[in-house]
Specification:
The protein is built from 9 helices and no strands. By secondary structure, the chain is an all-alpha fold. The radius of gyration is 17 Å and the shape is globular.
């Protein structure tokens, strides 16, 4: 399945467009995957980094109280950190496990996005080969230019939201580690 999805993304002249269409189709099915381990297995085994980005972007858009219309970028990933509420299908998991899963997917989105940008994966396969041969610099968007202050403020916002939820309980070590890794 993963290989077929990857091929489906690449056969079009616009991998970005085809990945959006495929992500729209498979997104409702991902919401119905009952176990975190199954969701992670599906996302971690995706051959197409671009499709993984689109699916994760949809998941986070779905989990934001106020979705944004920014294109996928580093600024949008920071927006997701600050504005995502817990993912809807996580009803039965403990609060810390739900936040942990959200951070796991946000990190996966960041890594996948980095691979998309560095590998010119939004370009058609024929154009991509030319870009790689020419050693072209990745195309960054305006929203990819973020500062350390932006990162710091969004992380602090996330931590304060999490502290409100946890109340007097201390932050679990796994959450601290994932926030540090993401930062």
């Amino acid at each position: 399945l993963q290989r077929m999805l990857s091929i489906a993304v690449e056969v079009d002249r616009s991998p970005n467009c085809s990945s959006c269409k495929i992500a729209d189709v498979i997104f409702p099915f991902i919401l119905n995957i009952p176990l975190r381990s199954q969701r992670e297995a599906f996302l971690n085994t995706m051959d197409s980094q671009l499709l993984r980005c689109k699916v994760l972007e949809l998941m986070f858009q779905h989990s934001c109280e106020v979705p944004t219309n920014m294109p996928l970028s580093l600024a949008k990933i920071l927006y997701f950190l600050s504005h995502s509420v817990l993912l809807q299908y996580q009803e039965e998991a403990a609060i810390c496990e739900r936040w942990d899963e959200m951070l796991q997917y946000l990190t996966l989105l960041l890594l996948s996005y980095q691979n998309v940008v560095l590998g010119h994966l939004r370009s058609a396969l024929s154009e991509r080969m030319d870009l790689i041969i020419k050693k072209a610099k990745p195309k960054l968007q305006d929203d990819d230019h973020i500062t350390q202050l932006d990162i710091h403020l969004n992380v602090e916002n996330f931590l304060s939201r999490l502290q409100e939820v946890l109340g007097e309980e201390p932050f679990p070590l796994q959450i601290k580690e994932k926030v540090h890794m993401l930062q």
